[in-house]
Write a structure and sequence with these properties.
alpha/beta, TIM Barrel, M1 Pyruvate Kinase, Domain 3, 3 domains, 8-stranded parallel barrel, disordered N terminus
Length: about 500
């Protein structure tokens, strides 16, 4: 056979068909093993979303980039947007390759109709509605807003947020207390009735978040710079000396005793990076390696992340268990911080039962903020989908501090892909439109970030003086992006600019 004949479309289609058919068989074998593994003690469940997730994980353990190029050259799907429909897409491509190759007998039957092919999208839409409420007329992506304490002072702020486009009100249980939370919830319910929408209430339990408490510096306005030493104290007051001119106590004293020399520390969402120099007698001294230009001010109530230190802590503290009584009373959804293993979900459900949940099932949002949670994400999804409405929050602040800023952009994409494959709604969180919220004017970079957040099912804004204006801006932006993008797929609405 001459080279020209061997390179005809039919011959290339036949070769691609053989490769893809073999890949499909490997996917089925690997996916069956994965499903057994991630299903845990409850056994493999009859859930098409989990089946598709396992198919996706099995596929993504192969590098199919050369195959994708060959499929594109034949005018076929490159399989680059199959997250919600792994087998339907594979089978559709196999059938197309078979037709190009002149017909094959060993072709799996394609999806019977368009609805069957896109069933994964329908599952995700249904799961999003069950968790976050019905979508608006103009946009698919919901807007979540963290309420400030002043939202308990009267109905006006919450009503303004609802009119601007808020779909979910978030209450951070690390701040304020039950009476404030009850007042916030009442105003959210009232605002929902006024605007004619069911605005959900998410209450976010704090978990064992490590924060600075009392702080001391040798000079009042001094800022930590590279090379400076900071003493962390487990008990008592901050202690300074000639060698260590910055000191702080921490909200979790036992963390100090579990540090070892060489462990990394990140402060205030990564604004400062340090390494433990020494540990001894209820204190640890860290050396600053990197900080933002001009230095970083040491303040109370700022987060501390320890990416190298195994703390062995329960994701629920004694305070969380008490707070859950109010969560059961007020909330529609629970935000679960520091969840890392499937058994952490069982722990939460046991506490909810003890605290009087009864028959009312609260939606669950797992905050993905630690490397262990990333590693266990398929198992977390498999376990959580059994209990009811479930979503994942990409907690980008803590996650970046744990895995490093260089990996964050890549990892947030992978989380979006896995969640789409499993029909799990995803929340894009941390520093969205932060300058807009705080200063009233957005930066160019954060507008682009907010536009990309349209691929998630929900975007979270934090509190700030211009929060109502930020919600209104995000509402308009997400509505426009709905015409251009669905998940990873560009949608080609008519352009009017040219």
């Amino acid at each position: 056979m001459n080279i020209t004949a061997a390179n005809t479309p039919a011959m290339r289609a036949a070769a691609a068909h053989e490769e893809l058919l073999g890949l499909r068989a490997q996917i089925l074998t690997d996916a069956a093993e994965r499903k057994t593994r991630i299903s845990g003690e409850g056994g493999a469940q009859d859930d098409p979303a989990i089946d598709n997730l396992c198919h996706y994980l099995a596929l993504r353990h192969h590098d199919i980039r050369p195959l994708q190029r060959r499929l594109m050259a034949l005018g076929l799907s490159s399989m680059g947007r199959l997250e919600s429909r792994v087998l339907p897409t594979t089978d559709a491509v196999l059938n197309a390759l078979s037709a190009l190759a002149g017909g094959r007998a060993d072709v799996p039957p394609p999806a019977t109709d368009e609805a069957s092919f896109f069933a994964g999208e329908a599952r995700l839409d249904e799961a999003t509605g069950a968790l976050l409420g019905d979508r608006g007329l103009d946009r698919r992506t919901r807007i979540m807003v963290t309420l400030p304490g002043m939202a308990a002072d009267g109905p006006d702020m919450t009503l303004d947020l609802a009119r601007a486009g808020m779909d979910v009100a978030r209450i951070n249980c690390a701040h304020d207390g039950p009476e404030v939370w009850r007042a916030m919830t009442a105003y959210v319910r009232q605002a929902g009735k006024v605007v004619g929408r069911d605005i959900k209430v998410l209450m976010d339990v704090a978990g064992p978040k490590i924060r600075t408490e009392a702080v001391a510096t040798a000079e009042k306005k001094a800022r930590l710079q590279a090379g400076d030493r900071l003493r962390l104290v487990a008990d008592g007051e901050p202690r300074l000396d000639d060698a260590v001119r910055f000191s702080a106590t921490v909200s979790l004293p036992e963390m100090v005793t579990r540090l070892t020399a060489g462990d990394r520390l990140r402060y205030d969402d990564g604004k400062l990076e340090a390494v433990v120099e020494s540990v001894g007698d209820g204190e640890a001294v860290v050396v600053v390696k990197r900080t933002k230009a001009g230095g970083t001010k040491l303040k109370p109530e700022k987060g501390v992340n320890l990416p190298d230190t195994a703390l062995g802590l329960s994701p629920l503290t004694a305070k969380d268990e008490t707070d859950l009584e109010t969560v059961i009373e007020c909330a529609d959804l629970i935000g679960y911080s520091f969840v890392s293993r499937p058994e952490d979900i069982d722990l939460l459900d046991a506490v909810l039962a003890r605290r009087g949940q009864g028959a009312r099932q609260l939606g669950l949002i797992a905050k993905i903020e630690q490397p262990l949670a990333l590693a266990n994400l398929p198992g977390l999804i498999a376990r959580a989908r059994r209990r009811g409405p479930f979503g994942v929050m990409i907690a980008r602040g803590d996650l970046a501090a744990e895995i490093g800023f260089e990996r964050l952009a890549e990892m947030q994409e992978e989380i979006l892909w896995l969640c789409e494959a499993a029909s799990v709604p995803c929340i894009w969180a941390t520093q969205v439109l932060e300058d807009m919220v705080k200063e009233g004017i957005p930066t160019r970079g954060e507008m682009t970030d907010a536009a990309m957040a349209a691929r998630a099912e929900c975007v979270m804004l934090n509190k700030g003086p211009a929060i109502v204006e930020a919600v209104s801006l995000l509402d308009r932006l997400l509505a426009r992006m709905d015409g251009h993008l669905f998940k990873k797929t560009p949608t080609l609405r008519a352009l009017k600019s040219w």
